[in-house]
Specification:
There is one protein chain. By secondary structure, this protein is an alpha/beta fold. Among the domains are: 13-109, Rossmann fold (3-Layer(aba) Sandwich); 171-322, Vaccinia Virus protein VP39 (Rossmann fold, 3-Layer(aba) Sandwich), CATH 3.40.50. Helix content is 37%, strand content 19%. A seven-stranded mixed sheet has the order 9-8-7-14-15-17-16. Strands 2-1-5-6 form a four-stranded parallel sheet. A hairpin with an 8-residue loop joins strand 16 and strand 17. The longest helix is centred in the middle third of the chain and has 16 residues, at 141-156. It starts with 11 loop residues before the first helix and ends with a strand.
C-alpha cells in the first residue's frame, strides 16, 4: 500500500518561487524574520508587510512600513498572497486569520522553533521510512489522521490540514487517563499554566507535583500562581530539563521561548542573559516515582527524555511530549520513546493553534 507522502510532489516554498502574486508577510517579530530569511535565501521577493489594524501605528519592520490589510488591498488588488508569520491559540485571533483566508490566498509557513533547516519536500522524502514506521505504530486511526494532516500542513502551509484534524485540548486527560492520585512532573512549566490546567482537571487531588522552569521571570510567576500548594506537595526548580546536571546561559527575553545562547553569541554584561542550572529528571526525583510527565522544553525534548530514562524504565509514567519544536520531532521522538518502552501506546493529537504549535504525543 502506498504511503500518503508518496503522492505529494511539491511544497509551499516551491510554489512561492514560481507564483506571479506579490508576497505579503502578516506579522512582526521572530517568525517574520525567520520566514523573510528563508524567502531571501530562495530568491523569493517580499512585496510588503502587514499587521492587524490595531497594531499598525506607524511601525516599520525589516525596512518596510507596516500596513493595514485595506492598504495592501488598495495597492495590489487581488494580485497578492499572505504568509502568516506569528502563532496564536486565541480563538478570536485564529478566526480572524481564517476569515482573511476566505478572501485572500493565505498560508502559514512552517519554520522550526528550534534547530536548522526546513520541513520541506526534500526533508520529508529523506525521512520517509522513519515517518512510515511511526505512522504504522500509532495506536488509533485518529492519530494516523493527525500525523498525515500535520505533515501535509508542514509541506503546504495550508491551515485547512490543521483545522481538519484538531481536537479539544482537554482530550489529553481522557487519553492519558489522568486520575486523582498522580505524581505529576511538569518539564517546561512556564508560568504554571499547564499545572493549573492539571489541578482543575483533578479538582486539586494529587499525590505530588514537581516542576522545572529555566526562565527566572516565568518561574517567579509560577510560584506566585501556585502559592497555595505547600512545599510538602510541590517541588519547584528554577532550572532546565536536560540529560546531565550542568549549567547553560539562557536568553531570558523570550519568556516561554527562553533559549540557550552559544557562548560566542553572548554579549557581555547584559541582564538578558543568565546562567541557569540544567538537571536530569532522574536527579530531581532521586528514585521517587512519577506517574505523569509533561515535556515541552523548546526543542530539548530529546535531552529531557534521556534525563528521565531511569524514571521511565522503572515506573512507566504516562507521557505528554511536544512534537513541534524541531523538524525531526514528528518521527524521532516517537521512535525514541518506543525504544525506551515498547509497551507504550502512542497517540498523536493536534489541538487548536496556528501554526502547529500544539501537536503532542501522548504515551500510555
Amino acid at each position: 500500500m502506498a504511503f500518503f507522502l508518496d503522492d505529494i510532489n511539491s511544497d509551499l516554498w516551491e510554489y512561492l518561487k514560481f507564483t506571479d502574486k506579490k508576497v505579503v508577510l502578516y506579522g512582526m517579530g521572530d517568525g517574520a524574520e525567520k520566514i523573510k530569511a528563508v524567502l531571501d535565501a530562495r530568491g523569493i521577493p517580499v512585496a510588503d508587510i502587514m499587521a492587524s489594524d490595531e497594531f499598525v501605528r506607524g511601525h516599520s519592520f525589516l525596512g518596510y512600513r507596516v500596513k493595514k490589510l485595506s492598504e495592501i488591498e488598495e495597492q495590489f488588488g487581488e494580485d497578492f498572497l499572505i504568509l502568516v508569520c506569528f502563532g496564536s491559540q486565541i480563538p478570536e485571533v485564529m478566526e480572524h486569520i481564517y476569515e482573511i483566508g476566505k478572501k485572500h490566498e493565505l498560508f502559514a509557513p512552517n519554520v522550526p522553533v528550534a534547530g536548522e533547516g526546513l520541513f520541506d519536500l526534500a526533508f520529508a522524502k529523506e525521512h520517509r521510512d522513519e515517518m512510515l514506521t511511526v505512522h504504522k505504530m500509532l495506536a488509533d486511526d485518529k492519530s494516523r489522521e493527525v500525523f498525515e494532516g500535520v505533515v501535509r500542513y508542514k509541506l503546504s502551509g495550508n491551515l485547512k490540514y490543521l483545522r481538519d484534524v484538531e481536537t479539544p485540548s482537554e482530550e489529553k486527560f481522557f487519553l492519558l487517563n489522568i486520575g486523582t492520585d498522580e505524581v505529576y512532573v511538569d518539564l517546561g512549566a512556564y508560568d504554571g499554566d499547564t499545572m493549573v490546567e492539571f489541578l482543575n482537571e483533578t479538582s486539586m487531588q494529587f499525590q505530588k507535583l514537581y516542576a522545572m522552569e529555566p526562565n527566572v521571570y516565568s518561574y517567579r510567576k509560577m510560584k506566585r500562581r501556585l502559592y497555595m500548594i505547600g512545599s510538602a506537595l510541590m517541588e519547584c526548580y528554577n532550572c532546565g530539563a536536560w540529560n546531565e546536571d550542568t549549567a547553560f546561559t539562557f536568553d531570558m527575553r523570550k519568556g516561554r521561548g527562553s533559549k540557550v545562547v552559544k557562548n560566542d553569541k553572548k554579549p557581555m554584561n547584559s541582564a538578558r542573559y543568565r546562567e541557569v542550572k540544567m538537571m536530569k529528571t532522574d536527579t530531581m526525583l532521586c528514585g521517587a516515582p512519577a506517574t505523569y510527565i509533561k515535556i515541552d522544553v523548546e526543542g530539548a525534548e530529546r535531552e529531557a527524555l534521556e534525563g528521565a530514562a531511569k524514571t521511565i524504565s522503572d515506573f512507566k509514567p504516562k507521557l505528554n511530549v511536544a512534537l513541534y519544536h524541531r523538524n525531526e520531532d514528528m518521527f524521532s521522538l516517537p521512535l525514541m520513546i518506543s525504544k525506551m518502552n515498547r509497551r507504550y501506546k502512542l497517540y498523536m493529537r493536534h489541538h487548536p493553534y496556528i501554526p502547529d504549535w500544539d501537536t503532542n504525543l501522548y504515551c500510555v
